[in-house]
Design goal:
By secondary structure, the chain is mainly beta. It has 2 domains: 39 residues, no CATH class; 193 residues, Immunoglobulin-like (Sandwich), CATH 2.60.40.2130. The protein contains 1 helix and 12 strands; from the N terminus they run E-E-E-E-H-E-E-E-E-E-E-E-E. The strands form 3 sheets. The chain has a 6-stranded antiparallel beta sheet with strand order 5-4-7-8-10-11, with helices on one face.
């Protein structure tokens, strides 16, 4: 009897049948099709390491939010920011933003000037996910930086890609730079406020002015000013 291979095979069963018309035994072959379901494949992990480096001299970068998603964008220039992004841009809180994708991972603390942080994230069976990153510049009203919907299909295992990212203005809070509205260590002011009083859309950030350069409402100094780019992002596919 032949064995079953490739999950489906004709199985031959010999059945002895007695023929009444003659005294001899006769054997007929009956073909029975047997279908064996294919085994469920074991999920394959697709893993990345994302390293974010703070390029500023006086701005702490909030713990980066790393999100892998399969469709659309989570933020883009000219668009109205989501409340989840507003929370990052105004107070560095990423809990809500991290729920927006298929898989996500957050940093474990602020990144001080000149330092970096590496975050690992894994998704199963998907090599063409999009990668979005967002993190706040702490000594500002609503400044953030990051990467929007970068196509990870460009990376094979062992490949790396590096880019520098500028500062963006979430457009949710006026850039008064006041002690009451800047949440970072320079002032310790208010974080997220649901009231939006600025342009209402994401744009390139004009930069910190500071009290030293004549902004009467500012509690910041020239030490908190920054040039673009403000962060460096390195993505490596590890698995």
């Amino acid at each position: 009897m032949p064995s079953i291979k490739n999950y489906q095979k004709a199985l031959l069963i010999a059945l002895p049948l007695a023929l009444s018309a003659c005294g001899d035994d006769d054997t007929r072959e009956v073909i029975v099709e047997v279908e064996v379901p294919a085994p469920v494949p074991t999920p394959v992990d697709v893993s990345y390491e994302v390293t974010v480096t703070n390029l500023t001299n006086g701005q702490p970068v909030s713990p980066p939010a790393i999100v892998l998603h399969t469709e659309g964008t989570l933020w883009a220039l000219g668009e109205v920011p989501s409340v989840a992004l507003e929370r990052i841009a105004e107070e560095g809180t990423s809990d809500e933003f991290l729920t927006l994708g298929t898989v996500s991972a957050g940093g474990d603390g602020p990144i001080t000037p000149g330092n970096n942080q590496t975050i690992s994230v894994t998704i199963q069976d998907i090599t063409n996910a999009k990668l979005t990153i967002a993190a706040m510049l702490g000594n500002t009203n609503d400044t953030f930086s990051g990467l929007s919907a970068w196509d990870l299909s460009q990376l094979e295992v062992g490949d790396s890609w590096t880019t520098n990212s500028p500062a963006y203005d979430a457009g949710t809070e006026k850039n008064t730079e006041s002690a009451e509205t800047v949440p970072g260590p320079a002032t310790g002011g208010e974080g997220f406020n649901p009231t939006r009083d600025d342009t209402g859309f994401i744009s390139m950030h004009p930069g910190v002015v500071s009290a030293d350069d004549g902004l009467s409402t500012s509690a910041l100094t020239v030490d908190h000013k920054f040039d673009n780019p403000v962060i460096r992002i390195k993505i490596t596919r590890t698995e």
